[in-house]
Structures are given as C-alpha cells and as structure tokens.
Amino acid sequence: MLVIGSGIAGLFTAIKASEQHRVLMITKKSLLESNTRYAQGGIAAVIAEDDSPAYHLQDTLVAGAGLCRSEAVEVLVNEGPEGVRELIRLGTLFDLENGELALTQEGAHSHRRILHANGDATGYEIVRALAVEVHEHPVIDVWDEHFVIDLITDQGECIGALVLKEDGSKVFVRAKATVLCSGGAGQLYRYTTNPDVATADGVAMAYRAGAVVRDMEFIQFHPTSLCYPGAPRFLISEAVRGEGAYLRNVKGERFMEKYHPLLELAPRDIVARAIVSEIELTNSTFVYLDITHESPEMVKHRFPTIYETCMRYGLDMTTDWIPVAPAAHYMMGGVKTDLSGESSIPRLFACGEVSSTGVHGANRLASNSLSEAIVFGRRIVERIESLPSLAPSLGRDVKSRNMDNRSAEQQQSKPISEKRLSLQKMMVRKVGLRRNGKNLQQALDALQQELPFLDQSLNYREELEYANLLTCAWLVTSGALHREESRGAHYREDYPARDDAMWQKHSLQQREQAIVEEWMS
Predict the structure, then answer these.
(1) Which regions are flagged for Basic and acidic residues bias (predicted)?
(2) What pLDDT, on the 0 to 100 scale, is given for residue 34?
(3) Which of 10, 149, 171, 387 is the most buried (most CB within 10 A)?
(4) How many angstroms separate the CA atoms of 492 and 461, rounded?
(5) pLDDT for the residue numbered 395
(6) Which H or E run contains 151?
(7) Ranges for all domains in the chain classified under CATH 3.50.50.60
(8) What's the chain's average pLDDT?
(9) Is 268 a catalytic residue?
(10) 434, exposed or middle or buried, with CB in 10 Å at 0-12, 13-18, 19+?
(11) Contact, 352 vs 372, CB < 8 A?
(12) What is the pLDDT of residue 100?
C-alpha cells in the first residue's frame, strides 16, 4: 500500500494499514513537516457528559452552510471519540485537568469539545506520537525528500505512482491501493498559515489522472494570523477567542457586534470578512486581538507556543494587543470520496485536507479536520481489506498524465520563484476573501495565458509544484466564477446572498469536462 503525505492523515492511515499490509510512505520533506504540525486549537470530539454527537452534528451542519453531506458528518461525530482514544493508545499526550481530558470551546461550537496538547501545540504532539510509531514499525518504509510526480492508472484503476527521487531519477511504485494524504493548497496565496509544502499536489495529481474533484471554490481564510513586520503569518488559534479574547479595530473599538450575534465566536468566514471590512473602514492593514483582560497565568499556560512566538517579536500577549489579519488556511474542497475514502478512480483514496468527504461543506467547523483524518483513515483501511490483489499488467499500456512526458521548448520568461509569487499575489487580489465576477474573469484569463507552462518538460520539484499550484488555481477560480451566490467561505460581492433554490449543490470538476452541478441529496 502506498501512502502519499505525512500529516495526521498519512501517519494514522499508515499505522492502521500496517496491521495487514506492507506500507510505503512518501513525503516530500520529512515526517514532521505538514499542516498538522501547525494545528494549534485541537481536535474536536464528543467527550463531555453534557455534550452529544447530535450537538456536534448540528454545529457542523450550521457552519457548513447547507453543503455538508449529513451521512459523512454523522460518521465523523459518532466515530470521532474512538479515534481520539486510539490516538491516546498510540502515545498522544492530551492535556488533562484534575485527571480528566481538558476540553475547550472554539468558534461556532455549542459545547466544550476541543482536546488540546501542550496548550496550543496539539498538531505537533499528535505528529510526534504517530511519527515515533511509524519510525519504529517494521513494515512501514518511509521515503523522505521524495516527490510524487503523478498517479499511474491501468484500465481505469490506480496502480501506483511515479516518484522523483532525491538524485533526480524517477521510479514507478506499484501498489494495491494508493492513499493521497498530501494536504492542502495554502501556497496558492501570498499570505497563508500553511507551510511551504502545501502546494496542492494531491488535488492536481488526482485531477490529471481523471478523478472528480469537488467544491474547490471554498477556501477558508483563518481570521487571525499574526500581521507584524518581520514576523511570518503565524496562526493565532481560534481557541484564543474561545478563551475570551476580543477583536478591536485600530481605534480600539470592539466591532463584532456589528456583524454577528456570536461576536468573536462567529463562524470563521464571517469573522474573517468582518476583519477585512474593519481594515478598509479604518484604512489600516490589521486589527487587534486583545486577551489582556484574562490572567497572565492562564494565557501563558494555555497558549505557550503563541505566547513565545509573539514574544520573539516583542509582543507580550498578556499586556499587548496582537495585530492580526486573515490568511489562507484550509481547503474545504478536494478529491471527491465516498464514505470509505475512495475516489472516483478505483484503488485511489484520499484522506485529510486533500479529500472532499462532505464533512466540511462550504465552511469547516474549527478542529474538525484532525478528527476527519482519523475517522476516514480507519475507514479507508477497512475498505482496502476487501480489495482483490492487483492483476499483473501483462504488457498493457499504463497511463500517466506525467507532465515530464510532454515535449515543448523549455523557454521560460521568468524564474519559477517569480511565477509562483505572481500567482500568489493575483489569487489574493482576485480570488481571495471577497470575490466578484469581473476579478474572477480577469484571474481566469491570466491563468489561461499561463497554462502552456503545463505542456513543457518539467523535471525539477519547484517546476512540478508550480504546475500543481497553477492547476489548482484554475480549479478554484473557475469554480468561484461558476458559483453565482455567497455561501460559507465563498463570498461574491455581486451575488451577496445565499441562494438555496439555485445553488444548494456541489460543483464537480473533471479533466477535459465542463463543471457539473450535483444537487444535495
């Protein structure tokens, strides 16, 4: 079995699969470098006695703005608690209070159901525990610093992948099942909370192979990333607002009461757009996050990573208001899967942020992503158990959309780094938090001019990453132009209302086909 990616989805799926299979895990950097590592808030699961799966279901459906698949959400909320218990068995050390699991609350959750570790380092603790297990496992091989170029199909089935090795050579890895756990697409945007590796590789590969991708227009922007000269766009967790922080504009005024009755705990898309509105109204580049009214001891204990990072740049959370602004954070859409995590291509699975299981709808509820990876990782392994062995190829023609096989003049007008930055800036301006038809069409026209890049012979990782970003930018932009309404994380200034009569449906995209609309069942 082949697992592509090493976040929580890849690590957990590999561990579960290793009970019955040999597993090869391929990661383009290292086991510890993924979006999971930077997840601060925690993992959502029904643990408290006053909570229930029904409450968690309702919260998720409300945040998802009418596009969640209710069956998938039911799977998440009912199987999530057992997934958490499994993480604990695998060595994850969640925070405790009085001997019980410590729970906090985040935006749009009705109950305290967020487990955390080391205060605000939950993702890192989960990856640490799972990586130890993977390293020590006798039937899991890990290839660090390897890049998967393309998926390989044979008679409509995925039979493995073409891999770029560290020395520049390529190898075909044949596998009974291939699981994409390659994360999201934050690097589409100039400002993102994601690491450099989040270049949409999995979605682009699956799309090239002919898989259906769904709801790519829904990109979640986290409302509060650190916005300070010399500092990275570091995530300031939702949980800071969950513990009582206020949002203030540069005049010092709290403003969320103008935008939503839940104030700072409103859904992310609403908070993010409210912040952009206040930034424009006050002619500034940020707003403030203020938790100075809470006790310094609580702040330092609950948010040690955020506290220390801010201190590194001369900002003390206990006494200073922290300048923040929205940044690209999470991709709600992705490779369409069924409830077993299988894509439209047999033997190709997707898990975690790269997938579209139907859990998140138009707007992910905070801390559901880690739960989703665990729950559907286990389901993928159960499905793979029932797969027959791969038939021998017998000289049949195997298909790859491998860009390296294409021939064209390799004349490049700009270095890849410049192309990537230009793409990121355009996506922020034209396909960001607030969209309109004119800007989206301009972005699509600009992308159309750049698409010939995909016909060149691409041999280096930075070229392949840029090609994947370009492919994903096309999917996001065309999906956003097609959806003529505002829903969840997708906001159109020219269609500001949610329109269930016309648009309570999914957008499906497949290679060489027009966008297909799929009504909610």
Answers:
(1) 396-407
(2) 65
(3) 10
(4) 35
(5) 45
(6) strand 147-154
(7) 2-218+329-385
(8) 92
(9) yes
(10) middle
(11) yes
(12) 93
H helix intervals, 324-415: 368-385
Q: What is the pLDDT of residue 266?
A: 87
Contacts of 343 (CB under 8 A, 6+ apart): 180, 206, 211, 212, 335, 336, 337, 349, 350
pLDDT value at position 393? Answer: 60
Strand runs labelled E in 202-314: 213-214, 219-226, 246-248, 287-290
Q: How confident is the model at residue 520 (pLDDT cuts 50, 70, 90)?
A: confident
- How far apart (Å, rounded) are the C-alpha atoms in residues 276 and 279? 5
Class of domain 236-327: alpha beta
Confidence check: pLDDT of 430 > 70: yes
Q: Which class does domain 412-519 fall in?
A: mainly alpha
| 57 φ, ψ (degrees, to nearest 5) | -60, -50
- Answer whether 212's CB lies under 8 Å from 343's CB: yes
Q: Which of the residues 208, 214, 233, 268 is marked catalytic?
A: 268
Residue 309 parent element (H or E): helix 304-312
46 Cβ partners below 8 Å, 6+ apart?
Answer: 52, 53, 55, 56, 77, 80, 81, 113
Q: Is residue 256 predicted with pLDDT exceeding 50?
A: yes
**pLDDT recorded at residue 404:** 45
Reading the block at residue 156, the tokens are: 């409509």
pLDDT for the residue 399: 58
**CATH fold group of domain 2-218+329-385:** FAD/NAD(P)-binding domain (3.50.50)
The C-alpha atoms of residue 365 and residue 52 are separated, in whole angstroms, by: 16
| Residue ranges, CATH 1.20.58.100, the chain | 412-519
